[in-house]
Amino acid sequence: MNEANVEKKRLENPPQTVDFRISRREKLDAAQYTETFTVPYRRNLNVISALMEIRKNPVTKEGKQTTPPVWNMSCLEQVCGICTIVINGRVRQACSALVDDLLLASGGNTITLEPMSKFPNVRDLTVDRTAMFDYLKRTKVWIELDGTHDLGSGPRMSQETVQERYAYSRCMTCGCCLEACPQYFDDNYIGPQAIAQVRYQNMHPSGKMTRDARLEALMEEDGIQNCGNAQNCVQVCPMSIPLTRAIYETNREATIYGLFGWLRK
Amino acid sequence: MAIKISRSFVMRKLHQLTGIVPLGAFFFVHLFTNSKAMSGASVFNDAVADIHHIPYLLFVEVFGIFLPLLFHSVYGVFISAEMRPNGVNYGYGRNWFYIFQRVTGVFLFFFLLFHILNFRFGMIPGLNLTPVAGNAELAFAIVQKEFQITWVFILYVLGVTATAWHLAYGFFLFAVDWGILIGERAQKMALYACVGLAFFLSAVGINAMVAFNKKCGLLPSALCEEAEKKGIAEPDGSRRF
What we know:
heterodimer; A: 265 residues; alpha+beta; Ubiquitin-like (UB roll); Fumarate Reductase Iron-sulfur Protein, Chain B, domain 2; two-stranded antiparallel sheet; 9 helices; B: 241 residues; mainly alpha; 3 helical TM bundles of succinate and fumarate reductases; 68% helix; 2 iron, 2 sulfur cluster binding (chain A); 4 iron, 4 sulfur cluster binding (chain A)
């Protein structure tokens, strides 16, 4: 956590203006095209504030009047995940993407904004991430506690378990891991986020009681076995969730359950 | 309650397993036999003859090599086709390894097809037309002649290197996919070991290839003196007493 104390690098000779190349799409399945907008540079500009600037006066660099680009935003502090887009080819949250950092990294004067490619592109920079929530439903990532009677206090967890589970609990369903995963597209692979949530619930002493049902949901045609171990997920995760650890711990359980489970019948 | 297992789960696990046993194990045996070329033609030809004398040879060959190889390579090509490579934007080491495992796999699909037709069956027009199988006494001479053709030699160097890497990283992937290797640090250590193994296997494989036209391969021939003193034939087929 030393990062907070380090002075962020700033552009020494900032440009007068910054160009934003933005992917546009009228509606789902309509043709995609790009438009470039010029935004006056100011200190601490981030991608969301630049988009807000463009919205005030949606005129392209060529001087063409157009509709304001559509994007999602909510918390503006990288905890809700809704503003996730692809910036200069890399998936991340737009709210925490500082223009200074982007220009320093690319060395250029143009920033490219695209919607995530692995989800249906509803309009401009917005996508429909329903698939992620469907995976969570399918894998039953909750703890069954039905009934009106008093169940008493739950079982205790070790401090190690609590800490590891806390890491998984930080998932904000933003979609970065799925966007960067070379195995995730269409219905090919369930992806790291659902696997990490399965691990999260399977580690819970009460959640363990329905472990097998979650494992089976993870071993369907598009299941955990389709992981290709490129490990991009853990690299791009903005919440630093140990996604690969979740996959490999669950691999062990799934392998034992799937390959040797029948020997116990 | 019956355990539900999907087809792809069984196929993936089987794919990972066949890569290690029998194919990985076979590659070690293969390199061991090849390396006997370092001691000259008769040692190598005897080794080939020994293989011919394996009991139930046909079944061993079909069920131990051909079928697992066919399954691993064909299903492997299907797995490779699933790839949506993004190494340019996400240029992490593991991401490149992921891509490279599939690239080497597809390359090996064609290389092994060539290799089996070339030596096992002798069916590549314009190249060797005598199958090594059934002609143990000619084995050394066949390979020697083939490796004198530069492009064939280079192709085999690529083939051996690609196999060495695909297998070494395959060990890593197997351990990871079966949940044996979990922690970050453990994976790092295992990866170093795999890189070391890949270099070792490539070196042994390439040295054996060189040995068909230069005694003892790239090593000083003094290391292979033993066989020579016993009056075993030279790589060129002549005997020295």
